[in-house]
């Protein structure tokens, strides 16, 4: 096989089957790929036995490991346990896999990626970078979305360089607009760290730095790379998710409140569906662990088969565009 | 007059008229009130001359002052300038007004409130506290929403006590649910500060502390008081605002995309309108500067007449419920 993905089937909210269905669909459509399904062999086999497509079954290699971290709070301990996640990284470091996909604990995934795949030279701290859909059908990268509660100006600059490379390849944008997210757009606003980061980014000739932006306009596509500390990024992401979810919920309730609006809802159903789908984080699939010497994707804990499938598609894009070497190039690392 | 409000007409995006129309409407409905309109006398008089209701005009006292801070970045300098905002606080400290309403710069308003109205005893740092509407028609207080980029556990506890009192009076809830907003609900998650704050709130017998909450469920009404540092609170608020605005925008576009959905939109118009109105921050009006020995309300910079009117209504509720003395009571301050 040309490309091999190590997929951690454990540690997600909806269980083995969602991972499996996503894998099968992906493998059917992508004959060049092989997936290591690392998880509950018994559950996987029970479903696979009902599938007749032997060609696809051949490209799904099961690695039986039901173990998840015994104590999520204890990251150090988790790193030394033989879990499905650590198996995935072993496949990676043994060159048996080209990328890892997991919906397991973010903190442990990040630490394990750092420990096993190693940090990239010149990069101080890895980060989490989800792709967020906008109302213009465009997408932007938000980072850090939760790996580093606190940050330094240099980290933000490292992340800018990497996300810039990701945006060029995955979003197909020649000159991505890179913004620092702040509590105001005025130059004097924000913490010492963000002030320093702004100075660094203004100096950087390879980055199209567009200044401070507030979270308000991001979903309208105001930038391609939105930089922030992991604490703020995480709050933004979950606020956005909650706002959309609850707005849609209330609208649905109000549409069902009268006969006339019910008819209206029926006729305008397609518009709702399209809107919800466009802004659904599941349609884009996963966050990247960036700053490590490997392709590591983190799926949302609540991912369903659609989310996992889209995460696999993102990995495919990254692999086929040789993104890791492009990033090393941008960072001036010998490849 | 029983109640007097000093209203800063300057420093907002939409200008004098929105403040004026809101004041006139409010005064018409509330014969017990007097408003000091501190701003551009010429503009105010031009409109007032067209109004026939002399009784209302008598209760709108114009204080001519066009000045706004000459340099917003320089808070210290701004505090010593004779601006419309400082005039409002002079009316307050001279006991000519019972409350201040302004849409001017947050940082300056906070500093001026602290300097002129003074901090409440036992309270380390004032904060901004907007009321946020939920999809259940309930509301919750979010604080700090931007006054203190960084916080200490003790500040969060102070704010919890004050917001708790506000919630009892303004939201009419006997035992408000107080939550700390965090990047995860697990007990071990978050910064040192939030861990310490959790310990303090768990010990406090007068607070119904309900634990860590993520931003995701707030709009579903998961708590009555949401506590967070000003940096995170500000990002949350603007993310929520942006998500709703952009979701609605996309939905509108999709509804206009076909003949059928256009008809559907027409029939379900009422449901959209209700939904947008319920979640519109303008329907609730203003944030409070809390922790100072006065009632100080901060309207959104982009407030229109509806927003200002609702801010005035909030102030009315606070005044008529004697909230400041209730807070002092809760804090064990002699009144």
TrEMBL record, chains A, B:
This chain belongs to the protein called Phosphate acyltransferase
Protein's GO biological process: fatty acid biosynthetic process; phospholipid biosynthetic process
Q: In which pathway does it act?
A: Lipid metabolism; phospholipid metabolism
Asked if the keyword Mitochondrion belongs to this entry, the reply reads no
Pfam families in the record, alphabetically?
A: FA_synthesis (PF02504)
In alphabetical order, the GO MF annotations are: phosphate:acyl-[acyl carrier protein] acyltransferase activity
Q: Tell me the protein family, please.
A: Belongs to the PlsX family.
The protein's UniProt keywords, in alphabetical order, are: Acyltransferase, Cytoplasm, Lipid biosynthesis, Lipid metabolism, Phospholipid biosynthesis, Phospholipid metabolism, Transferase
Record the organism.
Answer: Mycoplasmopsis gallinarum
Q: Does the keyword DNA-binding apply?
A: no
What Gene Ontology cellular-component terms does the record carry?
cytoplasm
Q: What does this protein do?
A: Catalyzes the reversible formation of acyl-phosphate (acyl-PO(4)) from acyl-[acyl-carrier-protein] (acyl-ACP). This enzyme utilizes acyl-ACP as fatty acyl donor, but not acyl-CoA.
- Enzyme class, first EC level, given as a word: transferase
- Which residue windows are coiled coil? none
Q: What is its EC number?
A: 2.3.1.274
């Amino acid at each position: 096989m040309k490309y091999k993905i190590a997929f951690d089937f454990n540690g997600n909210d909806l269980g083995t089957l969602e991972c499996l269905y996503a894998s099968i669909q992906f493998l059917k459509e992508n004959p060049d790929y092989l997936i290591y399904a690392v998880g509950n062999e018994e559950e996987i086999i029970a479903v696979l036995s009902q599938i007749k497509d032997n060609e696809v079954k051949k490209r799904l290699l099961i690695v039986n490991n039901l173990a998840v971290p015994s104590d999520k709070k204890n990251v150090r301990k988790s790193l030394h346990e033989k879990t499905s996640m650590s198996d995935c990284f072993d496949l990676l470091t043994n060159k048996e896999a080209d990328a890892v996909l997991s919906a397991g604990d973010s903190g442990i995934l990040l630490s394990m990626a750092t420990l096993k795949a190693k940090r990239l030279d010149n990069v101080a701290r890895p980060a989490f970078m989800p792709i967020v859909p906008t109302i213009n059908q465009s997408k932007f990268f938000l980072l850090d979305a939760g790996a580093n509660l606190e940050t330094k100006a240099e980290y933000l600059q490292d992340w800018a360089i990497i996300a810039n490379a990701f945006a060029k390849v995955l979003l197909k944008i020649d000159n991505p607009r890179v913004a620092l997210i702040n509590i105001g757009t005025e130059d004097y606003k924000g913490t010492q760290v963000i002030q320093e980061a702004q100075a660094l980014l203004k100096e950087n000739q390879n980055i199209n730095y567009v200044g401070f932006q507030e979270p308000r306009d991001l979903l309208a596509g105001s930038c391609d790379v939105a930089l922030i500390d992991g604490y703020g990024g995480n709050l933004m992401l979950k606020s956005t998710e909650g706002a959309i979810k609850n707005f849609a919920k209330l609208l649905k309730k109000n549409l069902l409140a009268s006969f006339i609006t019910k008819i209206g809802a029926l006729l305008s159903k397609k518009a709702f569906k399209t809107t919800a789908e466009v802004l659904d984080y599941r349609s884009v699939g996963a966050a990247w662990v960036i700053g490590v010497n490997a392709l590591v994707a983190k799926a949302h804990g609540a991912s369903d088969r659609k989310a996992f499938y889209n995460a696999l598609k993102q990995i495919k894009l990254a692999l086929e565009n040789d993104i890791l070497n492009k990033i090393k190039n941008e960072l001036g690392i010998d490849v």
